[in-house]
Amino acid sequence: MNLHLLPLIVYAAAMAAYAWHFARRDPAVGRAATTLLVAAALAHTFVIGMHTMEAGHVPVTNATSAIASFVWLLALSYLYVEMTTDERAMGVFILPLLVGLQAIPASHPIAEARSQVLQGPLFGIHVSSLLFAYASFALAGVIGITYVLLFKEIKAKHLGFFYTRLPSLQILDRMNHRAIMIGWVFLTLGIVAGAVWASTYAGADPRVRAMSLEDPKIFVSFVCWGVYSFELFAARRIGWGGRRAAYLSALGFAIVLLNFVPISYFLTKSHNF
Amino acid sequence: MHLLVVGISHHTAPLELRERLDFQARGIDQALHALAQRGSTREAVVLSTCNRAEIYAACDELEAARGDVVAFVSAFNGVPACAVTPHVYEAADLEAARHLFRVAAGLDSLVVGEPQILGQVKAAHTIAAAGQRTGPVLNRLFHASFGVGKRVRTETRLGSGAVSVGFAAVSLARKIFGDLAGRSVLVVGAGEMGKLTARHMKSQGVSHVTIVSRTMAHAARTAEAIGGANVAPWDDLDAAIAGSDIVIAATGAAAPILTKARIEALMRPRRNRALFVIDIAMPRDVEPAAGEIEQVFLYNLDDLQAAVRENLARRATEVALAERIVAEEVEKFGIWVRSRSAIPTVVALRQHFEDIRRTELDRLAFKTASMPPDARARLDEITRLIVEKLLLHPTEQLKLLGDTETVGAYADALTRLFALSERALDAPDAPRDDSRVEPFRPKERGRR
């Protein structure tokens, strides 16, 4: 049996609980939802731990295992945000993402490569920084979407569903900005570490030699970096906060997702081991 | 013992009469004292708010107390009985309990679900308890009502959503800015509406309030009325808007003073910080098109009133849920009341057993006199424990009896079987196992 099925089932249960809590706003259901998500994250930790022992390093070298690790990091990051802000409303948006992405490793067996070039600290920094950056961008994207939903309700003077369920625009804007900031730092770090690593091992493996800006995965990563850099610049210099930043966050995350799933599976020549 | 409520409220009495029947103004303590002097009630609580004046009482003779309390209400407030009586409502026993529970839940309020009433009910009970005018019955009743109020608030959405324009504005400001501390409000115009809204914002935590008016003297007067507000001249209006988070426009101007172009020009130096504009002027002070500007949230009086109407409609759907909670709690209270009616029998039965124990110990006193003191103490303890054990189950069963009729039948049987004294059964002041709180007794009765 594919071990990734276990966390998937618990994530799905947590998703149902978050949806129920969002609709009915019952605090007991909210606590149950958080408990389920913690359980899912623990189960996921266990599964990743098993794969780590099997492969000798954290399983991140091919697209499927990287997605599994990304889901795990996103779950942990979201739990951190929920516990520090005491705000559960975002869970209903994050959980479908976790469930949808976790379905990929749950339905594809993971064959973790053991390659000489994939050892060493540089590779570790490259992958873990990028996964963490993507998790931050996922949070920012979801926060951005909720911002737009609430913004539209207030602008339209129709104070209904989201008005009673979401935190204030100001808080959403600040959370979005912080997530983008953290994500941008790790994205930059990840790209730099990747570039240094690729130049070090260029002679060792044909896939490493294929790493250039012409590779779609690398190219789109730079596009992402450009979008988020612009968002940070615009927020600081031309007062692009609020809805515009929210839209940019959602756009940026759409690109991340594109890079992460279809490009990783079908287009890249360099990033699959 | 019976429960009784007698009162008038916004449902039954016009404002003029409610103003005249104001126990709060004449002193709740004095009212409680005066009512106690009349001797018709054994416990009493006076609940007096701007929408209601009610007296909750525990009494022995329901009919007599009913008439006497109405007479007291008119006499104490100096209003002729004929003016009061047509507007008075009354309820007894479990219906009185239901009435209080509905009041505490906010179901009987003018604005259904308003939260202040629960605090007022608590305060009314505190005053009566401090003056030793409450006893086991009203203490139990009022504590149950606090529980009802709390349950309704946590289990239903009866109290959710702003139901006044001022609260709707504050709630919106919170949804836009989060915490209001550190935010600044600008009031344009020195009229009454602007002043009220600004005062409300200030009480909700807004840090700075600035008033701008064409006449500085008016602005200064309004600022003083709000307390701790600043004043800025009319010519500095643009700068004042640029530095504010919330603008309340309330001038008497005939044409809009804040046009879209004017606000748009101000958004640049603000670096697109959100601006919440509340236009409560008639005719409007702000061009409606200004609401199209990114990060400008424009609400006029009609918009806020629409939000209030929506909230009121939502509350109405929660009423049925709250009524169900009230019914459940009345049921629970009823069980307690019925268990109480068995108490005189329980007390008499225990007294009877204790008397026998004492008599027998006294009869054997000459034999036990030679025993060491600790052995005698043990003997006393053992006999007491035997009596306790013998009575434990019958006592519990008596308290669980369903209705008053069955309790009466059991009481008769026990009285006959054990020859319980009539005196003990009838004694109204017999000690009770739940009388931790000193029962209220009218003074002349206490002296007897």
Kindly describe this structure:
The complex is a heterodimer of chains A (273) and B (448). Helix content of chain A is 76%, strand content 0%. Chain A is mainly α and 273 residues long. The model of chain A has no long low-confidence stretch (mean pLDDT 84). The radius of gyration of chain B is 32 Å and the shape is elongated. In chain B, helix 6 packs across helix 8 (136-155). Chain B has three domains: 2-155, Beta Polymerase, domain 2 (2-Layer Sandwich); 165-308, Rossmann fold, CATH 3.40.50; 342-432, no CATH class. In chain B, a hairpin with a 3-residue loop joins strand 2 and strand 3 (52-59). Chain B has helices at residues 15-20, 23-26, 28-38, 62-77, 81-84, 93-105, 116-130, 136-155, 165-177, 192-203, 216-226, 237-242, 260-267, 301-341, 343-363, 365-368, 373-399, 404-418, 422-426, 443-447; strands at 2-9, 43-48, 52-59, 89-92, 184-188, 208-212, 230-232, 246-249, 275-279, 296-300. In chain B, the strands form two sheets. A six-stranded parallel beta sheet of chain B has the order 7-6-5-8-9-10. A four-stranded antiparallel beta sheet of chain B has the order 2-3-1-4, with helices on both faces. With 448 residues, chain B is an alpha/beta fold. Classes of the chains: A mainly alpha (273), B alpha/beta (448). At the A-B interface, helix 5, helix 6 and helix 9 of A face helix 9 and helix 14 of B.
Helix run count of chain B: 20
Widest beta sheet: strand line-up of chain B: 7-6-5-8-9-10
Helix content of chain B: 55-70%
Unreliable stretches of chain B: 426-448
Shape designation of chain B: elongated
Oligomerization status of the protein chains: heterodimer
Number of strands of chain A: 0
Structural domain tally of chain A: 2
Largest interface: A-B, 19 and 23 residues
Q: Might you state the CATH topology name of the largest domain in chain B?
A: Beta Polymerase, domain 2
CATH class of the largest domain in chain B: Alpha Beta
